[in-house]
Design brief:
three-stranded antiparallel beta sheet; single chain; mainly alpha; Glycosyltransferase
């Protein structure tokens, strides 16, 4: 199963687009719940090379949801183009609600991206989610990174 990394941004956008105050508040609550879950339960812990990076693939520990084939095969890996969407969502959630914990989570993750950048200013496509060991060395520049770093100025 893919982690809900893109859903934060969708809920923040809904909160801005709706004219219904209750719907807007509920959308922000959902965004906060998703972000909290990612930050607290689906992020590489501090002390690992990939610290503060949200998981791309994960398995439901209770197995109440059947895993997608990609999650079954890659739950211990991270495709570095994907977590940036969650990080950008953290920043948008901070702007929408003002809770600094989301900005702090984004900054911590962005610092990890800077630390793991290769000398040619790219990242490996696929790495082991805790150690950063390269699984797929294809160079990648996640386009979402441009938005993230521009957003952070």
């Amino acid at each position: 199963m893919l982690s809900p990394i893109g859903n934060i941004r969708a809920m923040v956008l809904l909160s801005k687009l709706t004219d219904d105050k209750t719907e807007s508040e509920n959308a922000l609550k959902v965004a906060c719940n998703i972000a909290d879950y990612l930050i607290e339960d689906l992020t590489v812990p501090a002390g690992n090379v990939m610290e503060n990076i949200p998981f791309v693939y994960w398995l439901d520990p209770e197995r109440t949801v059947s895993p997608a084939p990609s999650a079954e095969r890659r739950h211990d890996q991270t495709m570095l183009s994907e977590p940036v969407r969650a990080i950008l969502g953290y920043m948008e959630l901070y702007e929408a609600g003002g809770n600094k914990k989301y900005l702090d989570a984004a900054v911590r993750a962005a610092r990890t991206y800077v630390k793991i950048m290769r000398p040619d200013n790219t990242w490996s496509l696929m790495v082991e989610k805790n150690s950063g060991i390269v699984i797929e060395p294809k160079p990648v520049v996640p386009t979402w990174l441009m938005f993230m770093f521009r957003h952070a100025k």
